[in-house]
Amino acid sequence: MRGIVVIKCGGSTMEQLPDSFFRMIAEIQQSGKQLVIVHGGGPAINSMLEKLAIPSRFADGLRVTCEDTLQVVEMVLCGQINKWLVRKLTEHGARAWGVSGMDGRMISAVRTERPLGLVGDVQAVSADIPLTMLAAGYIPVIAPLAIASDGCEHYNVNADVSAGAIAAALGAESLVMVTDVPGILKPEADGSRSLVERTDAGEIDRMIQDGTITGGMIPKVQAALDALSAGVAQVVICRGTADDLLRVSKGEAAGTAIVAERIEAGL
User: Do the beta carbons of residue 166 and residue 38 sit within 8 Å?
Assistant: First the structure.
């Protein structure tokens, strides 16, 4: 299905999202565009873990998740952030429906082979549930948790990875990753950093190797490349301002656009 835009809201941006963001989401939905929101919740999870004296650990930008941590992740993502987003969207005129990837086995996963504990690698995404919500006129708001195929274990899944997999399963026209930076920033000789407006897999590999892309941006671009390889037309990394969202919904440039293959001018 074409015409779907998947928006991933990072946990670090959640408290910074202005009312204009939610109003624009409502306006885009009312214009007929189908939207899906996948959200993170890192800072809120960290805060709750600190209150409960459970240490936070990360490896390569991904959260190491023990059983106690997973219980907190589930509580914060499903019980706090998911419903806050639904409430904010509803306040501004959107129709939203909050779920997690465990509901209806929407996201099935296997435990990652990396030493990250109860973290899942997405195995499959069932598009039936978000498509049913979209057909009924709702924005699915999805918390990135997954369940094993046998239903015996559940997993924390990186929100960027979840968003990429959901976008691919829905055949989305765009995946928009809302962050606290305007996009991929490249260092210049004078010490400043400039926005990379358009890039592709080859250039991203070079930027990871030379240290331009580091930390939490790495899983973002890797999820972006996976989504592109599965048929998503483009991935945009941006601040997610109302203007950014409007531009992306109209197919105009915003932030950093990652495409399957970049065509150089004059070639």
Answer: yes
The answer to whether the beta carbons of residues 57 and 118 sit under 8 Å apart is no
Q: How many domains does the chain have?
A: 1
Are the CB atoms for 183 and 241 separated by under 8 Å?
Answer: no
Rounded to whole angstroms, how far apart are CA atoms 266 and 82? 46
Place of tokens 């765009």: 174
10 Å CB burial of residue 17 (0-12, 13-18, 19+) is middle
Numbered residues of the known binding site for substrate: 41-42, 63, 156
Residue 156 in any domain: the answer is yes
Residue pair 136/177 in contact by the 8 Å Cβ criterion: no
CATH of the domain at 140: 3.40.1160.10
Q: Is residue 85 part of a domain?
A: yes
Residue 266 lies in a domain: no
Residues belonging to the binding site are: 41-42, 63, 156
Spatial separation of the C-alpha atoms in residues 149 and 151, rounded to whole Å:
5
As a whole number of angstroms, the distance between CA 223 and CA 157 comes to: 12
**Paired tokens of 252:** 């105009």
Whether residue 267 is contained in a domain is answered as no
* Per-residue pLDDT tens listing for the chain (267 residues): 458 999 999 877 787 788 999 999 999 999 999 999 999 998 999 999 999 999 998 887 788 999 999 999 999 999 999 999 999 999 999 999 999 999 999 999 999 998 999 999 999 999 999 999 999 999 999 999 999 988 889 999 999 899 999 999 999 988 999 988 889 998 888 888 999 999 998 899 999 999 899 887 888 898 889 889 888 888 999 988 888 888 888 888 889 999 886 544 433
Domain span at residue 117? Answer: 4-259
